[in-house]
Amino acid sequence: MKLKRTYFIILFSTITLGLFSSCNKNDDEKEEECITNKTEYVTSVNSPATGTVNQNVTIEVNFGVSNGCGGFGKFIETENGTTRIIEVEAKYVGCICTQDAPIRKTNYEFITNTAGNYELKFKSSPTEFITVNLMIN
User: What is the pTM of this model?
Assistant: First the structure.
């Protein structure tokens, strides 16, 4: 009887440890799986009209995300002469997210070593842009 009881305790302990180990591993894997990136659209831009060569011009950019897990990831830029097309890539972290669709705020830093007029086009829909004309002296 003692042998059966000892065997049962060992078997139960092994199964329990195995379950906890696999649960922790799966939880870690789920966290890694619950990070996604998605291009989102800009809702508004607040920019000065002028700037100075070799100095940062800070432009406030507001963009929408599709749920509460969304936040700023990075800017994706395409440059063509003095025109830049700028998209926001949002980063979604988390598997369980609120279903609101908040507006997030971040800063875009523009710097150039050449004076002139620059056109910054922030993507606000698949075919439309919010355009900022910036004079750099």
Answer: 0.75
